[in-house]
Amino acid sequence: METRTDQPRALALVGMAGAGKSLCAQHLDAKGYFTLRFGGVVIDALQRRGLTVNSENERIVREDLRSEHGMAAMAVISLPRLRDALRKHSHIIIDGLYSFSEYKYLREHLGVPLVLVAIVAPRHTRYARLEARTERPLTCAEAQQRDMLEIENLEKGGPIAIADYTLQNDGSPAALLGALDQLLDRLGFPD
Minimal CA–CA distance to 21: which of 117, 153, 113? Predict the structure, then answer.
């Protein structure tokens, strides 16, 4: 049993594409938590550049941002917003922390404990979800290519491997969200 605390904390959702991070983040946002999506940094950059939002342009912009700011780019760019949110909210959610460098950067610079929660699902399940989604769908081949690029180029495996908690998402959305709510209760995150 975890110790309940009112100490401010950040909870970061990590996992491969299609695992269920966005579902969890939307659930937490609806519960009133401040939620920042690291992928939003990429979308904002795409829009500033006047580029179409698609997986190839997202990959290019992600790599450009990391070339400019290092492997911790999303954390570096988002840190001011996260710190501002912590002045207003005791607990915040980070949706989609990608790289091990982002994790290390936030642990050093955020100023509050960082809890990593990995959302995991079998690869075939993730790929089916990605193919069926209405926003930014991916074919099985595109999903496999994205996995490989994110593991090889973006250090994505590290945060998943060292997550403080892991939620298995191979059942219904309600089951995943129920497990998430139970975890938040154990961690002492307010309702």
Answer: 117
